[in-house]
Amino acid sequence: xxxxxxxxxxxxxxxxxxxxxxxxxxxxxxxxxxxxxxxxxxxxxxxxxxxxxxxxxxxxxxxxxxxxxxxxxxxxxxxxxxxxxxxxxxxxxxxxxxxxxxxxxxxxxxxxxxxxxxxxxxxxxxxxxxxxxxxxxxxxxxxxxxxxxxxxxxxxxxxxxxxxxxxxxxxxxxxxxxxxxxxxxxxxxxxxxxxxxxxxxxxxxxxxxxxxxxxxxxxxxxxxxxxxxxxxxxxxxxxxxxxxxxxxxxxxxxxxxxxxxxxxxxxxxxxxxxxxxxxxxxxxxxxxxxxxxxxxxxxxxxxxxxxxxxxxxxxxxxxxxxxxxxxxxx
Length: 330
Hints:
Helix content is 45%, strand content 16%. The protein is α/β, with parallel strands linked by helices. The model is unreliable at 49-56 (pLDDT under 50).
């Protein structure tokens, strides 16, 4: 079955333009509208109808679209969502966007076609996805990152403050040349953690420099390469790492170079995971309330589905530092 993303790709326009064109909006350029109509006809695409019918035909199913279920943080988020959803009589469908806007839109298309009751997602930041959700007025709650232009309820963590506290902890341990490995530019959690890192340096009276910062995707492979580059070119004595998947890559790079966490290079990483206490030395982490985030997001979504909520809201939870051996001089 063709999706709205297929039509958009064939016509060379956004999914939002497809929606407007197929619903006869006068704001769409006639030439673009003709291309959309032609692409829809060629693909055999049929719109699902207006939002009010979508809501009436909704099933007792929720869709959870996250960036990577292999990341223990999102695994815990998913568990929190499922526990609340199941207790309320809802089933859950889990999707991985891999932080790819096109993949995110495909899953949103599927969710619309399957008449899910609501969506929880970790947004990639794609405006077309937000417009598509708004077009169908489907109940949605963002988790970990807000939707563009704050178009829906959100459950977040104060990443900036947590990163600042992590840097202050490293400074208190005697580290002076602290580096940062964070995620892709434009991803709010990555940018917030970088901003918190810089704020922590200022609060500790330490000099900051762009040479001490590297970005990569939120995965081990990219972080390993970024860590090798940072260690070779900037010689940091400590590292703040933006998530636990990246931390795996950083620890691999340190092992390859014969550098021991804590003794040679201090390491603090976002997100706790079962393996972080099993390594030597154990990893110092910024523990985020992932399960609580998922559970709260699910409750907000169910309230929104039931019509029990009014204004859009943002709930911001706190993270806390768990000091262990990887950030202790020794």
